[in-house]
């Protein structure tokens, strides 16, 4: 007997309830597929655009060793973008469509990458805070319901944890250094702290996609819960190296067993995700230029594949 849509829906819901992964060839509701394409492609775009603020310091890294480490880290981010684009393509969408959506402003990428990296300490702050926030979010996504996304997260988290440590180690060195170096580390923390908290997205009550994404187990923990986890783990790291988190409202709440912290500037967040942050235009312009410059590589690969097929 042919399966009805209702049967298929029930089988899908049963898999989700049993914590089984949904795989590319499994039936899935169209809205589940679309929501995944949205989130996963935005995640891929973030990894790739995220190479730019760090790339800005490759030629100015203070030693050859630091330069090699930074180069390897940035290459890892490119690799993460590639796993994530491939995982997204298993949902029946092409890489070209995803890149077009980015270039036409229909797809977002993480707000954090629209801030400039002004000093070497920013490279420390990006690894420590931005990779640190990304890991908190991505550890949770290792349990996401879509198999290819969950598996990509496992490998990505291993690499991100190296990134986080290299960033923190830069901050440790600067915080132990001269007064000027310590001031540079503090200045980087001042500028990257709040944008890092914005990475977790709007408050749960304002989050358009959360309720449905939690039901489908695409998201396993809420935006606010993950943000709290990040604050709780990062404050002691700042204290350990004598840096001050730039938030007067930050205080340990014994009753909650968590830090209380101040309110994010949500106007700034909205401005940045609308495309009006400090570096939005520059980031997109650079990506388009790199994409155009690489057209000959794609054309050569397509011509080679066509020739191989015909022999
Ligand atoms: N930036 O309803 P929600 C990294 C948008 S990887 C920009 O709460 P959702 C590695 C959201 O898309 C960092 N837009 O959305 C690295 C939606 O707009 P839409 C990237 C944001 O999806 C490190 C609207 O607001 N990580 O850093 C942001 O349920 C160093 C409503 O929001 C991921 O992408 C934001 N911060 O929850 C690389 C993780 N927040 O699509 C280089 C995967 C929200 O309707 C150097 N993604 N929006 O137009 C997620 O976990 C989720 O998508 C959230 C947002 C939590 C980001």
Can you describe this structure?
The chain has 13 helices and 2 strands, in the order ααααααααααββααα. The chain is mostly helical. The protein has a two-stranded antiparallel sheet with strand order 1-2. The structure holds Phenylacetyl coenzyme A. Phenylacetyl coenzyme A binds near residues 38, 39 and 198.
Task: Give a short summary of the structure.
The protein is 67% helix and 2% strand. The chain is mainly α and 311 residues long. The protein has a two-stranded antiparallel ribbon.
Structural class: mainly alpha
- What bound compounds does this protein have? Phenylacetyl coenzyme A
Number of beta strands = 2
Strand line-up across the major sheet: 1-2
What is the secondary structure topology, with strand pairs?
Layout: H1 5-17, H2 30-49, H3 51-55, H4 64-89, H5 95-103, H6 120-141, H7 147-175, H8 179-198, H9 210-215, H10 223-240, E1 251-253, E2 258-260, H11 266-276, H12 280-293, H13 295-310
Antiparallel strand pairs: 1-2
Helix pairs in contact: 2-4, 4-7, 6-7, 6-8, 6-10
Which key phrases capture this entry?
single chain, 311 residues, two-stranded antiparallel sheet, binds Phenylacetyl coenzyme A
